[in-house]
Amino acid sequence: MKPLLLSHFTATSCLGRGLQQTLDALRHGRQALKPCDFETVNLPTFIGEVEGVDDVKMAAGMADYNCRNNRLAQLGLEQDGFADAVNTAAERYGRERVGVFLGTSTSGILETELAFRERDPVTGALPAGLNYSKTQNTYSVTDFTRQYFALSGPAVVVSSACSSSAKVFSVARRMIEAGLIDAAVVGGVDTLCLTTLYGFASLGLLSTQACRPCDVERDGISIGEAAAFALLERPSANDNTRAVLLLGIGESSDAYHMSSPHPEGLGARIAMQEALHSAGLAPTDIDYINLHGTATPSNDAAEAKGVTAVFGHDILCSSTKGATGHTLGAAGAVETVICALALQHGFIPGGLNTHEVDPLLELNYQLENRSQALARVMSNSFGFGGTNCSLIFGLAQVGQQPDGESNQ
Amino acid sequence: MTIQLTAYIEGIGILGPGLTNWPSTLEILTGEQPYLSLKTVIPTPELLPAAERRRASDIVKLTLATSLEAIAAAGLEAASLPSVFSFSNGDGLNCHTICEMLASDDRQISPTRFHNSVHNAAAGYWSIATGAMASSSVLCAFDASFGAGLLDAMTQVVVEGSRCILMASDTPYPEPMFSLRSIPDNLGIALVLAPQQNPQTIAQIKVSITHDDACKFQDAALESLRIAIPVARGLPLLQAIAQQKNRRVVLDYLDNTRLAIEVSPC
After folding, report:
1. Residues with Cβ < 8 Å from B163, sequence gap 6 or more?
2. What's A133's DSSP letter?
3. Strand, coil or helix: what is A156?
4. Distance from B30 to chain A by nearest Cα, in Å?
5. Backbone angles phi and psi of A199, in degrees to 5
6. Which of A282, A318, A346, B66 has its CA 20 to 30 A from that of B245?
7. Smallest Cα–Cα separation from B48: which of B59, B64, B63, B62?
8. pLDDT for A238
9. Distance between CA atoms of A73 and B207, rounded to whole angstroms?
10. How far is Cα of residue A230 from the mean position of the Cα atoms in its chain?
């Protein structure tokens, strides 16, 4: 594929608002997961909650979109000058030439979950004021973002569970390459809600502690929430040498089971191989893999089999879900931003909360942060329904010195 | 310069109220038969393993039915087909049941309910049923979902140079959500798209973005269907294909951004 430039990017999660707080939290191994105190949820698990989401005031004219998911989307868009960058791109290319492709799994379902408690005892009707299309509907966060920037180009939500906001890069890339648009706002937004907390509990997949990816005693996920975005454009000769490019995309389906990965990691392996193929790279060209690494016993085992089948046992890898929690439909975008930070700052984030790497995984799993120049990295995102996506990112020009702390 | 994306349609599947398959829908869309809105009857998906068949919700069964008709018409195997799924919402009844349980004293939703709640449930079951391990896009654009799915499938065909199957389906919510989102019945459309003309090609389509007005049906019953169910916004395209003549149709997409499609029979 032709590389694409991530001209701007930003992430807001339980680690903090924007790039600097995210980077600081990763560098210091800050523990942001906490015992679940969300809403009325009574489950013995940990969550990664973004502070202050309920304090966000929706922008002028956007009140109909008010729900936790769109509040977090707006909070995320307003970090790191990202909104300004989108507006600049829209003025440069035309508002009909900028697409919006965002991933989410549960959108604003929380509004409807709460509204069901307020049903009329006689008629069963939902309370007045619940705006289905602008909150609950899966498209809501892309609709919100498109209206927020007054864009009129193609737009859609990708909702394939936990691969959603990795796969948005594939949709955007095809739109740009087909010539329909010149730039794309891509990313993912997912927020805490009862469906995912009680749903993952029903599957026995919630950790009772802060999740421990690839640990010998890993016992499930910690659900988090996040909004992460990137502005994708065609690269130009003038790009900063430390600019981050999307180099490869690989996708596959397990065709195996709705909620368990293929035990041999076959779908994961195909996605990683396809990503290398699309980038025209060999496994030895990849310096680090940000694993999907959810900390469920089956995901980490299947992913490890896929990784070692493609890359062998030496490739440096870690999961950052011990830091962010599993942000579900936003995970691909959050981990894209973490990969971009790793490339620009020359560091590998160690896997938080993991004490003893499961020897059966046979991975070169990094427990500590590590300073190292990186040229190309891979990010894995897999989801329910056997949906897999691997992305490869790299610096525009390899071989440069990492940015110092002061540059970001 | 207007960008036009070209693809060739090799197979069509459809199932909805009064629309039982493509051959009978073709006769309705060309005016040979009247349109009568009868409740959609979704067949049991024999292709699914027994366990998955028991767990499958309507949106899964509907999508399987339309896709298998389209794939059979195209004379293809599903296993190697990249796919695009587009739904204006997930399975309505399943969503209702989960919200009802979460509002009750017992919030213990079942694992099956939960995995059926993901927007890509039909994509997951479809890949299990067909053994397809190729890439899939699973999309939502509210009322624009058919157009969004078609546009993504077109870029897949043009950029990747590969065949692609588009599956767009909608299922109704029961009350009380029906009052907020009044989709009256199940409807699904599936199209197999290819980058080149082949012996099985039915029509060539050229898709571009326009601000022209969307095509409406003169037949009042078909027009009310087009408006009532999001995926039915694609029916004017199917009518143009059925008529076997060169036509330009405009489909609703996002706000005043619409899709112009030049249809030529092959």
Report:
1. B10, B76, B81, B82, B157, B192, B193, B194, B195
2. I
3. strand
4. 31
5. -65, -50
6. B66
7. B64
8. 83
9. 32
10. 11
The superfamily CATH assigns to domain A4-397 is: Thiolase/Chalcone synthase (3.40.47.10)
pLDDT of residue B110 exceeding 70: yes
| Spatial CA neighbour of A101 closest among A250, A277, A281, A230 | A230
Partners of residue B102 in chain A, C-beta under 8 Å: 113, 116, 194-195, 198
Q: Residue A402 — very low, low, confident or very high, per pLDDT cuts 50/70/90? A: low
Residue A385 has pLDDT above 80, yes or no: yes
Written as one letter, the residue type at B46 is: E
Q: Whole-angstrom Cα distance, residue A69 to residue A141?
A: 7
pLDDT tens sequence across A136-174? 999 999 999 999 999 999 999 999 999 999 999 999 999
Q: Average the pLDDT over A340-369 and give the result.
A: 98
What's the structural domain count of chain B?
1
Judge whether B105 lies within some domain. no
For residue A4 the two structure tokens come to 């694409």
- Average pLDDT in the A184-188 region? 98
Report the CATH number that the domain containing residue B200 is assigned in CATH.
3.40.47.10
Asked whether A103 and A327 are in contact (CB, 8 A), the reply is no
CB A192 within 8 A of CB A223: yes
> What domain range is B223 assigned to?
5-88+119-265
Query: Choosing among B120, B162, B210, which should be mutated to test the A contact, i.e. which has the most A CBs within 10 A?
Result: B120
Whether the CB of A125 is below 8 Å from some CB of chain B: the reply is yes
Closest by CA to A158, choosing from B161, B135, B204, B48, is B135
The A residues from 32 to 91 touching B (CB cutoff 8 Å) are none
Q: pLDDT (tens digit, 9 = 90+) per residue, B111-138?
A: 999 999 999 999 999 999 999 999 999 9
Lookup: tokens for B173? 């919510």
A259 to chain B, any CB pair closer than 8 A? The answer is: yes
Strand, helix or coil for residue B79: helix
What ipTM score was computed for the predicted complex, to two decimals?
0.97
Subunit contact A112:B99, Cβ cutoff 8 A? yes
Residues 176-205 of A with CB under 8 A from B: 177-180, 194-195, 198-200, 202-203
Report whether pLDDT(B140) > 70: yes
Q: Looking at the partner chain, which of A116, A173, A255 has a beta carbon nearest the beta carbon of B103?
A: A116
Residue B181 lies in a domain: yes
Query: Is the Cβ pair A258, B125 closer than 8 Å?
Result: yes
Q: Is the confidence at residue B141, as pLDDT, over 50?
A: yes
